Amino acid sequence: MFQIDPAFVATSHALGELTLCELRLQDDARYPWLVLIPRGVALREIEDLMAMERAQLMDEIVHAGRALRVLGEALGVPVEKLNVGALGNVTPQLHVHVVGRRHDDPAWPGPVWGHSPAEPYTSDELAYAVETARRALGL
Amino acid sequence: MFQIDPAFVATSHALGELTLCELRLQDDARYPWLVLIPRGVALREIEDLMAMERAQLMDEIVHAGRALRVLGEALGVPVEKLNVGALGNVTPQLHVHVVGRRHDDPAWPGPVWGHSPAEPYTSDELAYAVETARRALGL
């Protein structure tokens, strides 16, 4: 049975479901940041998906990137560069990060992963970010 | 006209061409590491590709990952986890890194990007790695 690794629940907030993926908002107010988790059992690598699912994942990555541009504008940190990463060294369940980056963000120009501890949203910010992201994603 | 950013020429070696991408071997003997550069003018983000090109990119990412498993075995560092990343914060031309990771590699479990200076292949190692990668990629 498909289950989301508890590590994702601890660090991000559910936004809803696209055709292939669960969408989550990473709880770090410094970056507009979505996590896509394909619904499937024992998935670890992109190659574990069927060809049609891989094409769907690509579509959902692009969809997430467009939503991040909307979210970044709404949060006052317009996206200058998208970063897309499927790592999974720490949490092996297959997932893809889509992160909106700026030249003035804390990790620039390096990757966000492993850079520094997250700075969680306040509850008001979080409600606004979740609502904005959901609308932009069509969820 | 399509041109590869000189930054790639300085840090990697040409392997050949797939349908969409130029394939290059990153010159860092610590990781089996391929760089895919879609042939197109002024590409910066995955969303700049047409839908069919995006699906092709996904196919070539999976193909590269399989070749990395062969390369890692040949180099004595079998791949335990694939890392896939499209960042472009430093070199904005669209490119995708596919990296073979191990629990005993220098950057584990963090990302390789920005971790530490590359350790280039010796000329003998490089010739062997290029030949092995080309064969595994069907180039």
UniProtKB/TrEMBL annotation, chains A, B:
Q: What is this protein called?
A: HIT domain-containing protein
Report TM segments: none
Top-level lineage group? Bacteria
Which InterPro entries does the entry link to?
HIT-like, HIT-like_sf, HIT_Hint
Q: Where is the HIT domain?
A: 34-108
What is the organism of origin for this protein? Phenylobacterium glaciei
GO MF assignments: catalytic activity
Q: What PROSITE patterns is this protein classified in?
A: HIT_2 (PS51084)
